[in-house]
Specification:
The protein is built from 14 helices and 8 strands. By secondary structure, it is an alpha/beta fold. The protein has an 8-stranded mixed sheet, sandwiched between helices. The N and C termini lie far apart (162 Å).
């Protein structure tokens, strides 16, 4: 009996031990992984004590200053009394260089090479046709066509052809020299050699001469005004510029740059301001400065815009409160041909055009526009533009112009 009891007790103890081992194993599996050991802090060793004898280090070379380099304390630092501080010197802006324009006398003769394209179309074309052995009806029709293509106009063309036919028939013989002389005389006659082409800058009253420049957009109006200032300065006159073109961006800046190059003062106002007010102020300043001429650059405008054309008339009326306008110049682009004549007609209805400036004649093969526009308006061409250079605006001379067209 005791033996059986001992066996049962042993079995119970064995089962209990086995269960405890299983539970202990499960608990060990559920434990989180151990964190890695932290990095030990870096311990900086204290500075070593200086060694002596054989263990001593080689002394380092340190920069040293000489007696002269040592800065002594200033009077302010030594005594505590502040010293006076001088104002910084501000450099003055450089004075603009005043240019001396080329003289206007004979300028067209010097620029005659610029008319090469017109020469090939009009002058040399006519001479070639007139030099044919037989001048029949077909040849005269070709001459007529050449003149019309060169923008001479219908009425002046018919007039020129009739006179040429009559004189050729009377002459009988036609040497190249005779033909050139004949053509030269007839072209000069069409250009009106007796017309007064002087730019009027002398006022009958005791005020400066006033010149107003008008025209459509894109004709080179502001540039022409600047070049005209150079022409007047070259002739010994003092000039005041009025930048009354307030609608085109940078127009006033452009005109002022032209004026500064020749020492002419520019009167300007805010962008989009009243052009008539600026024109009035320009004449007022010209009187105060006792200037010889006041040039007024007006805003470019389409000839089809009635409101803008009426405003141009207002500028004219306001300026005339100081005195009469001495010159109203219409700037036309020579490359526009017959469209330029339409523009000229409308402008002439609004303001009394007294002279014409033809620009871009160097870039067109239609030199006959000079004849046509004079016939259309009954006023002379006074100036022509033959390039983009500052001194490429020349007084118009009929003889020199025709010589440039037909060549030597």
């Amino acid at each position: 009996m005791e033996l059986i009891l001992a066996v049962v007790i042993a079995l119970v103890v064995a089962v209990a031990v086995t269960s405890g081992l299983v539970i202990s194993g499960r608990k060990k599996k559920q434990l989180p992984p151990a964190e890695p050991p932290s990095t030990p802090p870096t311990i900086t060793a204290p500075p070593a004590e200086p060694h002596v004898g054989e263990e001593a280090e080689t002394p380092r070379e340190e920069p040293r200053r000489t007696v002269e380099e040592v800065q002594l304390p200033t009077a302010e630092e030594a005594t505590g009394t502040p010293t006076a501080v001088e104002d910084p010197v501000v450099a003055e802006p450089p004075t603009p260089v005043i240019e001396v324009p080329e003289p206007t006398a004979g300028r067209l003769v010097r620029l005659r090479a610029r008319l090469a394209r017109s020469q090939n179309s009009l002058g040399k074309g006519l001479l070639t046709l007139l030099s044919r052995e037989h001048l029949d009806e077909d040849t005269w029709e070709e001459i007529e066509e050449t003149l019309l293509t060169a923008d001479v106009g219908v009425a002046p063309t018919q007039e020129l052809v009739e006179r040429l036919r009559e004189r050729v028939r009377v002459l009988g013989t036609r040497t190249p020299e005779e033909l050139r002389g004949l053509l030269r005389e007839e072209l000069i006659t069409l250009l009106g050699p007796d017309l007064d082409r002087t730019v009027n800058t002398e006022s009958p009253a005791d005020v400066p001469g006033v010149v107003m420049v008008v025209g459509v957009n894109g004709t080179g109006k502001t540039t022409t005004t600047g070049k005209l200032a150079r022409v007047l300065v070259a002739d010994g006159k003092s000039v005041v510029l009025g930048a009354a073109d307030t609608f085109r961006a940078a127009a006033a800046d452009q005109l002022q740059t032209w004026g500064e190059r020749v020492g002419a003062r520019t009167i300007r106002g805010p962008e989009g301001g009243d052009p008539a007010s600026i024109a009035f102020d320009a004449v007022k300043e010209g009187i105060a400065e006792n200037a010889d001429v006041v040039l007024i650059d007006t805003a470019g405008r389409l000839h089809t815009k009635t409101g803008l054309m009426d405003e141009l008339g207002k500028v004219k009326r306001v300026v005339e409160k100081h005195g009469p306008l001495d010159e109203i110049l219409l700037v036309l682009d020579a490359t526009t041909g017959q469209n330029g004549l339409i523009q000229a007609r409308v402008f002439a209805e609004v303001v009394d055009i007294t002279g014409i400036v033809l620009t871009k004649l160097d870039g067109t093969a239609k030199g006959g526009i000079v004849i046509a526009v004079q016939r259309e308006l009954g006023v002379p061409v006074k100036l022509i533009g033959l390039g983009e250079g500052p001194d490429d605006l020349a007084p118009f001379e009929p003889g020199a112009f025709v010589d440039a067209l037909i060549g030597d």
